[in-house]
Amino acid sequence: MNVLRLAHPEYLYALWFIPVIMILFFLMRYNKRKAWKAMGDKALLARLLPDASKGKPVVKMLLYCIAFALITIGLANPQMGSKMEEVKREGIDVIIALDISNSMMAEDIKPSRLERAKQSIARFIDRLENDRVGLIVFAGKAYVQLPITTDFNAAKLFLSSVNPGLIPTQGTAIGSAINLAVKSFTGKDNKHKALVIITDGENHEDDALEAAKNAAKEGIVVHTIGMGSPEGAPIPVFNNGTRVDFLKDQSGTTVITKLNREELEKIAQNGKGIFVRASNAGDGMEAVMKEISKMEKKSFGSKQYSDYEDQFQYFIAAGLLVLMMEFLISNRKSKWLEKLNLMMGIK
Questions:
Q1: Which domain holds residue 245?
Q2: What is the pTM of this model?
Q3: Inter-axis angle of helices 174-184 and 208-217, to 10 degrees?
Protein backbone atom coordinates (compact mmCIF):
# COMPACT_ATOMS: atom_id res chain seq x y z
CA MET A 1 0.00 0.00 0.00
CA ASN A 2 1.33 3.43 -0.94
CA VAL A 3 1.56 6.23 1.58
CA LEU A 4 1.49 9.96 0.86
CA ARG A 5 3.34 12.60 2.84
CA LEU A 6 4.20 16.28 2.43
CA ALA A 7 7.84 17.33 2.49
CA HIS A 8 6.95 20.95 3.37
CA PRO A 9 3.45 21.00 4.94
CA GLU A 10 3.98 24.54 6.25
CA TYR A 11 3.31 25.88 2.73
CA LEU A 12 -0.32 24.76 3.01
CA TYR A 13 -1.00 27.72 5.31
CA ALA A 14 -1.02 29.82 2.12
CA LEU A 15 -4.35 28.15 1.19
CA TRP A 16 -6.01 30.46 3.73
CA PHE A 17 -5.55 33.24 1.14
CA ILE A 18 -8.15 31.58 -1.13
CA PRO A 19 -11.25 32.44 0.95
CA VAL A 20 -9.81 35.94 1.47
CA ILE A 21 -9.42 36.38 -2.30
CA MET A 22 -12.99 35.15 -2.89
CA ILE A 23 -14.45 37.47 -0.26
CA LEU A 24 -12.58 40.49 -1.68
CA PHE A 25 -13.66 39.58 -5.24
CA PHE A 26 -17.38 39.40 -4.40
CA LEU A 27 -17.16 42.57 -2.30
CA MET A 28 -15.67 44.38 -5.30
CA ARG A 29 -18.44 43.03 -7.57
CA TYR A 30 -21.08 44.13 -5.08
CA ASN A 31 -19.62 47.65 -4.82
CA LYS A 32 -19.31 47.84 -8.62
CA ARG A 33 -22.96 46.88 -9.14
CA LYS A 34 -23.97 49.39 -6.49
CA ALA A 35 -22.03 52.11 -8.31
CA TRP A 36 -23.65 51.17 -11.63
CA LYS A 37 -27.14 51.43 -10.13
CA ALA A 38 -26.32 54.88 -8.85
CA MET A 39 -25.18 55.94 -12.34
CA GLY A 40 -28.46 55.32 -14.15
CA ASP A 41 -30.87 52.92 -15.83
CA LYS A 42 -29.79 49.26 -15.98
CA ALA A 43 -30.95 48.83 -19.61
CA LEU A 44 -29.02 51.92 -20.65
CA LEU A 45 -25.84 50.62 -19.04
CA ALA A 46 -26.29 47.29 -20.84
CA ARG A 47 -26.42 49.15 -24.18
CA LEU A 48 -23.35 51.21 -23.27
CA LEU A 49 -21.39 48.04 -22.31
CA PRO A 50 -22.71 45.45 -24.78
CA ASP A 51 -19.61 43.21 -24.67
CA ALA A 52 -19.27 43.03 -20.86
CA SER A 53 -19.74 39.46 -19.58
CA LYS A 54 -21.36 38.79 -16.22
CA GLY A 55 -20.19 35.21 -15.77
CA LYS A 56 -16.63 35.25 -17.14
CA PRO A 57 -15.07 37.27 -14.29
CA VAL A 58 -16.44 34.67 -11.83
CA VAL A 59 -15.04 31.82 -13.94
CA LYS A 60 -11.65 33.56 -14.14
CA MET A 61 -11.58 34.08 -10.38
CA LEU A 62 -12.42 30.40 -9.73
CA LEU A 63 -9.73 29.27 -12.16
CA TYR A 64 -7.22 31.55 -10.47
CA CYS A 65 -8.07 30.07 -7.04
CA ILE A 66 -7.76 26.52 -8.39
CA ALA A 67 -4.37 27.35 -9.94
CA PHE A 68 -3.23 28.97 -6.68
CA ALA A 69 -4.28 25.86 -4.70
CA LEU A 70 -2.53 23.45 -7.10
CA ILE A 71 0.72 25.44 -7.10
CA THR A 72 0.63 25.75 -3.30
CA ILE A 73 0.20 21.97 -2.94
CA GLY A 74 3.05 21.53 -5.41
CA LEU A 75 5.30 23.75 -3.27
CA ALA A 76 4.43 21.56 -0.27
CA ASN A 77 5.94 18.72 -2.36
CA PRO A 78 3.66 15.66 -1.99
CA GLN A 79 5.78 12.49 -1.88
CA MET A 80 4.66 8.92 -2.48
CA GLY A 81 6.31 6.07 -0.60
CA SER A 82 5.68 2.51 -1.63
CA LYS A 83 8.44 0.51 0.04
CA MET A 84 8.27 -0.51 3.69
CA GLU A 85 11.46 -1.57 5.42
CA GLU A 86 12.52 -2.57 8.91
CA VAL A 87 14.90 -0.08 10.49
CA LYS A 88 17.09 -1.24 13.36
CA ARG A 89 17.64 1.31 16.09
CA GLU A 90 19.44 1.48 19.42
CA GLY A 91 18.19 3.93 21.98
CA ILE A 92 16.42 4.62 25.24
CA ASP A 93 12.70 4.65 26.02
CA VAL A 94 11.96 7.98 27.71
CA ILE A 95 8.64 9.05 29.18
CA ILE A 96 8.21 12.65 30.27
CA ALA A 97 5.63 13.28 33.00
CA LEU A 98 4.61 16.95 32.95
CA ASP A 99 2.75 18.65 35.78
CA ILE A 100 -0.03 20.83 34.32
CA SER A 101 -1.70 21.86 37.58
CA ASN A 102 -2.58 25.52 38.12
CA SER A 103 0.52 26.08 40.26
CA MET A 104 2.62 25.52 37.12
CA MET A 105 1.23 28.80 35.77
CA ALA A 106 3.28 30.74 38.37
CA GLU A 107 5.74 33.14 36.79
CA ASP A 108 8.79 32.90 39.05
CA ILE A 109 10.34 31.15 36.02
CA LYS A 110 9.69 33.13 32.85
CA PRO A 111 7.42 33.15 30.94
CA SER A 112 5.81 30.67 33.36
CA ARG A 113 6.77 27.34 34.90
CA LEU A 114 4.62 25.42 32.42
CA GLU A 115 5.70 27.30 29.31
CA ARG A 116 9.36 27.04 30.27
CA ALA A 117 8.90 23.29 30.83
CA LYS A 118 7.28 22.88 27.41
CA GLN A 119 10.12 24.78 25.77
CA SER A 120 12.73 22.57 27.46
CA ILE A 121 10.85 19.39 26.47
CA ALA A 122 10.70 20.55 22.84
CA ARG A 123 14.47 21.11 22.82
CA PHE A 124 14.95 17.72 24.48
CA ILE A 125 12.91 16.02 21.73
CA ASP A 126 14.95 17.81 19.06
CA ARG A 127 18.10 16.20 20.46
CA LEU A 128 16.73 12.65 20.47
CA GLU A 129 18.02 10.41 17.70
CA ASN A 130 17.27 6.70 17.91
CA ASP A 131 15.32 6.92 21.14
CA ARG A 132 11.60 6.64 21.74
CA VAL A 133 9.58 9.17 23.69
CA GLY A 134 6.19 9.29 25.40
CA LEU A 135 4.30 12.03 27.24
CA ILE A 136 2.17 11.87 30.39
CA VAL A 137 0.35 14.88 31.83
CA PHE A 138 -0.87 15.05 35.40
CA ALA A 139 -2.57 17.27 37.93
CA GLY A 140 -5.08 15.66 40.33
CA LYS A 141 -5.01 12.66 37.97
CA ALA A 142 -2.54 11.38 35.38
CA TYR A 143 -3.23 10.66 31.71
CA VAL A 144 -1.19 9.41 28.76
CA GLN A 145 -0.98 12.31 26.32
CA LEU A 146 1.18 10.38 23.84
CA PRO A 147 2.21 6.68 23.98
CA ILE A 148 5.86 5.82 23.39
CA THR A 149 6.74 6.60 19.77
CA THR A 150 9.61 7.34 17.39
CA ASP A 151 7.56 10.08 15.73
CA PHE A 152 9.18 13.16 17.25
CA ASN A 153 7.06 15.55 15.15
CA ALA A 154 3.91 14.02 16.65
CA ALA A 155 5.43 14.35 20.12
CA LYS A 156 6.02 18.07 19.62
CA LEU A 157 2.53 18.48 18.18
CA PHE A 158 0.93 16.86 21.23
CA LEU A 159 3.21 18.88 23.51
CA SER A 160 2.06 22.16 21.96
CA SER A 161 -1.57 21.39 22.89
CA VAL A 162 -0.80 20.86 26.59
CA ASN A 163 -2.48 23.30 28.99
CA PRO A 164 -3.99 23.15 32.50
CA GLY A 165 -7.50 22.84 31.03
CA LEU A 166 -6.78 19.27 29.88
CA ILE A 167 -7.33 17.95 33.41
CA PRO A 168 -10.24 19.46 35.37
CA THR A 169 -9.21 17.75 38.62
CA GLN A 170 -6.66 19.94 40.34
CA GLY A 171 -3.82 18.65 42.51
CA THR A 172 -0.38 17.15 41.92
CA ALA A 173 -0.58 13.36 41.77
CA ILE A 174 3.09 12.56 41.17
CA GLY A 175 2.67 8.99 42.40
CA SER A 176 -0.14 8.35 39.91
CA ALA A 177 2.02 9.70 37.10
CA ILE A 178 4.87 7.35 38.07
CA ASN A 179 2.56 4.32 38.28
CA LEU A 180 1.02 5.17 34.90
CA ALA A 181 4.48 5.50 33.36
CA VAL A 182 5.47 2.05 34.67
CA LYS A 183 2.44 0.58 32.87
CA SER A 184 3.15 2.59 29.71
CA PHE A 185 6.66 1.30 29.09
CA THR A 186 6.77 -1.55 26.58
CA GLY A 187 8.88 -4.70 26.86
CA LYS A 188 9.68 -6.87 29.85
CA ASP A 189 13.39 -6.07 30.10
CA ASN A 190 14.48 -4.07 33.14
CA LYS A 191 16.78 -1.71 31.27
CA HIS A 192 16.79 1.18 28.81
CA LYS A 193 13.90 3.03 30.48
CA ALA A 194 13.90 6.54 31.94
CA LEU A 195 11.14 8.66 33.44
CA VAL A 196 11.59 12.44 33.64
CA ILE A 197 9.17 14.18 36.00
CA ILE A 198 8.82 17.95 35.56
CA THR A 199 6.90 19.56 38.40
CA ASP A 200 7.03 22.08 41.23
CA GLY A 201 6.80 19.14 43.65
CA GLU A 202 3.75 20.19 45.62
CA ASN A 203 2.46 16.63 45.95
CA HIS A 204 -0.73 16.28 47.96
CA GLU A 205 -2.39 13.24 46.45
CA ASP A 206 -0.43 10.00 46.94
CA ASP A 207 2.79 8.30 48.00
CA ALA A 208 5.18 9.36 45.26
CA LEU A 209 8.22 8.07 47.15
CA GLU A 210 6.91 4.51 47.22
CA ALA A 211 5.90 4.75 43.57
CA ALA A 212 9.44 5.85 42.62
CA LYS A 213 10.93 2.96 44.60
CA ASN A 214 8.67 0.47 42.80
CA ALA A 215 9.58 2.00 39.42
CA ALA A 216 13.28 1.52 40.20
CA LYS A 217 12.61 -2.16 40.94
CA GLU A 218 11.18 -2.41 37.40
CA GLY A 219 14.43 -1.01 36.01
CA ILE A 220 13.04 2.47 35.36
CA VAL A 221 15.35 5.36 36.28
CA VAL A 222 13.33 8.28 37.66
CA HIS A 223 14.73 11.81 37.23
CA THR A 224 13.02 14.92 38.60
CA ILE A 225 13.24 18.53 37.43
CA GLY A 226 11.95 21.11 39.88
CA MET A 227 10.14 24.07 38.35
CA GLY A 228 9.93 27.12 40.59
CA SER A 229 11.76 29.00 43.30
CA PRO A 230 12.00 28.32 47.06
CA GLU A 231 10.53 31.79 47.70
CA GLY A 232 7.53 30.93 45.56
CA ALA A 233 5.16 33.04 43.50
CA PRO A 234 1.40 33.73 43.24
CA ILE A 235 -0.75 31.71 40.84
CA PRO A 236 -2.26 33.86 38.06
CA VAL A 237 -5.95 33.64 37.25
CA PHE A 238 -6.76 34.16 33.57
CA ASN A 239 -9.94 35.18 31.77
CA ASN A 240 -9.92 34.84 27.95
CA GLY A 241 -6.13 34.78 27.95
CA THR A 242 -5.77 37.91 30.11
CA ARG A 243 -4.54 37.80 33.69
CA VAL A 244 -7.24 39.29 35.89
CA ASP A 245 -6.14 38.32 39.41
CA PHE A 246 -4.14 35.90 41.52
CA LEU A 247 -5.54 32.76 43.17
CA LYS A 248 -6.73 33.33 46.73
CA ASP A 249 -7.70 30.95 49.53
CA GLN A 250 -11.01 31.00 51.44
CA SER A 251 -9.77 33.76 53.72
CA GLY A 252 -8.92 35.99 50.76
CA THR A 253 -5.15 35.59 51.11
CA THR A 254 -3.13 35.23 47.90
CA VAL A 255 -1.87 31.66 47.49
CA ILE A 256 1.92 31.36 47.12
CA THR A 257 3.21 28.22 45.41
CA LYS A 258 6.77 27.16 46.28
CA LEU A 259 9.16 24.57 44.91
CA ASN A 260 9.16 21.46 47.11
CA ARG A 261 12.81 20.59 46.55
CA GLU A 262 13.05 18.10 49.40
CA GLU A 263 10.21 15.96 48.03
CA LEU A 264 11.65 15.92 44.51
CA GLU A 265 15.13 15.03 45.74
CA LYS A 266 13.71 12.05 47.65
CA ILE A 267 11.71 10.89 44.60
CA ALA A 268 14.84 10.99 42.43
CA GLN A 269 16.85 9.22 45.11
CA ASN A 270 14.27 6.42 45.39
CA GLY A 271 14.12 6.21 41.59
CA LYS A 272 17.94 6.01 41.29
CA GLY A 273 17.98 9.16 39.23
CA ILE A 274 19.01 12.78 39.72
CA PHE A 275 17.23 15.94 40.78
CA VAL A 276 17.84 19.21 38.93
CA ARG A 277 16.32 22.54 39.80
CA ALA A 278 15.23 24.65 36.83
CA SER A 279 15.72 28.41 36.91
CA ASN A 280 15.64 31.39 34.59
CA ALA A 281 19.29 30.66 33.80
CA GLY A 282 18.81 26.98 32.88
CA ASP A 283 15.97 24.49 32.52
CA GLY A 284 17.86 21.50 33.96
CA MET A 285 17.22 19.30 30.94
CA GLU A 286 20.88 19.31 29.91
CA ALA A 287 21.94 17.45 33.07
CA VAL A 288 19.15 14.90 32.64
CA MET A 289 20.11 14.41 28.98
CA LYS A 290 23.68 13.59 30.02
CA GLU A 291 22.45 10.97 32.48
CA ILE A 292 20.18 9.38 29.88
CA SER A 293 23.01 9.26 27.32
CA LYS A 294 25.06 7.15 29.77
CA MET A 295 22.39 4.43 29.88
CA GLU A 296 22.73 1.17 28.02
CA LYS A 297 20.96 1.36 24.67
CA LYS A 298 18.15 -0.97 23.68
CA SER A 299 18.00 -2.52 20.20
CA PHE A 300 14.60 -2.39 18.56
CA GLY A 301 13.15 -2.34 15.07
CA SER A 302 10.56 -0.06 13.60
CA LYS A 303 8.87 -0.23 10.21
CA GLN A 304 8.82 2.86 8.07
CA TYR A 305 8.35 3.83 4.44
CA SER A 306 11.36 4.59 2.29
CA ASP A 307 12.06 5.52 -1.34
CA TYR A 308 9.68 8.47 -1.41
CA GLU A 309 9.18 9.93 -4.88
CA ASP A 310 8.42 13.62 -5.43
CA GLN A 311 5.03 14.38 -6.97
CA PHE A 312 5.23 18.20 -6.93
CA GLN A 313 5.78 18.50 -10.69
CA TYR A 314 2.27 17.22 -11.49
CA PHE A 315 0.60 19.80 -9.27
CA ILE A 316 2.80 22.66 -10.52
CA ALA A 317 2.12 21.68 -14.16
CA ALA A 318 -1.63 21.44 -13.55
CA GLY A 319 -1.60 24.79 -11.74
CA LEU A 320 0.26 26.51 -14.60
CA LEU A 321 -2.15 24.98 -17.14
CA VAL A 322 -5.18 26.30 -15.25
CA LEU A 323 -3.47 29.67 -14.89
CA MET A 324 -2.93 29.76 -18.67
CA MET A 325 -6.63 29.00 -19.20
CA GLU A 326 -7.51 31.87 -16.88
CA PHE A 327 -5.20 34.20 -18.82
CA LEU A 328 -6.72 33.26 -22.20
CA ILE A 329 -10.31 33.90 -21.08
CA SER A 330 -11.29 37.53 -21.61
CA ASN A 331 -13.91 39.48 -19.67
CA ARG A 332 -15.87 40.14 -22.89
CA LYS A 333 -18.76 38.09 -24.21
CA SER A 334 -17.93 35.30 -26.66
CA LYS A 335 -19.21 36.06 -30.17
CA TRP A 336 -19.63 32.37 -31.09
CA LEU A 337 -21.54 31.67 -27.88
CA GLU A 338 -23.82 34.63 -28.54
CA LYS A 339 -24.53 33.34 -32.10
CA LEU A 340 -25.20 29.85 -30.75
CA ASN A 341 -27.72 31.29 -28.28
CA LEU A 342 -29.47 33.19 -31.10
CA MET A 343 -29.65 30.05 -33.25
CA MET A 344 -31.21 28.13 -30.35
CA GLY A 345 -33.63 30.93 -29.58
CA ILE A 346 -32.03 31.78 -26.25
CA LYS A 347 -32.16 35.44 -25.25
A1: 86-302
A2: 0.63
A3: 20
